[in-house]
C-alpha cells in the first residue's frame, strides 16, 4: 500500500477510536468536562482544522480511486468480451489484483470520508444532549440565576396588585357608606355604579 493510503488507513483507525470514545457511556460529569474541553480548546480547534484539510486530500484520493476502479472494470469487461488478446493465468491474476487494490482504495477512502461525517454529527448531537441535560437539571432543581430576579419581580407585582386591590376595596366601601348617608339625607336613591 502506498504511503498516502497508509496514512488514510491510520486516519480511519483514529476515527474509529474517536467514535468509540464518543459513544462510550461515561458519567455526565466526565462527559461534560471532556466535551467542554473538546469544544472550547484552541489546540483541539487547530488540530480539527488540520484534519479537515486532510479530508480534502482524502476526497481527492476517493475520486481518483473511483475513477481507477471504473477504468479497471471497463478493461476487464473489454478483455472478457474477447476484443483483446487471449490472456493467460498471470494476466488474469494481475487483473484481479489490480481490481482488488482499486476496490480496496475506494472503500478505504469512502469509509474514511463517511466516518468523518458521522463523527461530526455525533459530536454535535452529544453537545446538544449535554446542554439539554444541563437545562433539564436547572429546571428540575428549581429556579436559579436570572430566574430568581424574574420570580422576585413577579412577587413584587403580586404585592402591588394586592395593595391596589385593598385600596380599591376600602374606597368602594367608603363610597357605599357615603352614598347610603346621602340617600338617607336627601330621601332619594344615589347611583351605586361602583358595586
What report would you give on this structure?
It holds the Pfam family Bap31. It is found in: Endoplasmic reticulum membrane; Membrane. Belongs to the BCAP29/BCAP31 family. It is a multi-pass membrane protein. One of its GO terms (cellular component) is endoplasmic reticulum membrane. The longest helix is centred in the middle third of the chain and has 53 residues, at 89-141. The chain has 2 domains: 3-142, no CATH class; 143-195. The model has no long low-confidence stretch (mean pLDDT 85). Helix content is 86%, strand content 0%. It has 195 residues and is mainly α. The chain has 5 helices and no strands.
Question: Which term fits the overall shape?
Answer: rod-shaped
Largest sheet: none
**Cα-atom Rg, whole angstroms?**
39 Å
Order of helices and strands: HHHHH
Total of helices? 5
Oligomer: single chain
Question: Which structural class fits the helix and strand makeup?
Answer: mainly alpha
Strand content bin: under 5%
Mean pLDDT: 85
Number of strands: 0
Unreliable stretches, pLDDT < 50, 5 or more residues? Answer: none
Give the number of domains: 2
| Gap between N and C termini | 96 Å
How helical, in percent, are the residues?
over 70%
Amino acid at each position: 500500500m502506498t504511503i498516502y493510503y497508509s496514512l488514510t488507513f491510520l486516519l480511519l483507525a483514529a476515527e474509529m477510536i474517536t467514535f468509540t470514545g464518543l459513544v462510550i457511556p461515561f458519567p455526565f460529569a466526565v462527559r461534560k468536562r471532556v466535551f467542554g474541553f473538546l469544544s472550547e480548546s484552541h489546540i483541539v480547534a487547530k488540530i480539527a482544522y488540520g484534519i479537515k484539510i486532510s479530508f480534502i486530500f482524502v476526497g481527492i484520493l476517493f475520486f481518483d480511486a473511483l475513477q481507477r476502479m471504473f477504468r479497471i472494470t471497463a478493461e476487464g469487461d473489454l478483455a472478457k468480451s474477447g476484443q483483446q488478446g487471449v490472456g493467460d493465468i498471470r494476466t488474469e491474476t494481475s487483473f484481479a489484483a489490480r481490481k482488488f487494490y482499486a476496490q480496496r482504495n475506494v472503500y478505504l477512502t469512502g469509509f474514511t470520508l463517511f466516518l468523518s461525517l458521522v463523527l461530526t454529527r455525533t459530536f454535535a448531537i452529544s453537545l446538544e444532549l449535554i446542554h439539554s441535560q444541563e437545562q433539564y437539571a436547572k429546571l428540575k432543581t428549581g429556579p436559579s440565576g436570572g430566574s430568581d430576579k424574574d420570580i422576585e419581580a413577579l412577587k413584587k407585582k403580586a404585592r402591588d396588585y394586592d395593595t391596589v386591590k385593598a385600596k380599591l376595596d376600602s374606597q368602594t366601601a367608603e363610597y357605599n357608606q357615603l352614598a347610603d348617608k346621602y340617600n338617607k339625607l336627601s330621601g332619594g336613591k344615589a347611583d351605586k355604579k361602583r358595586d
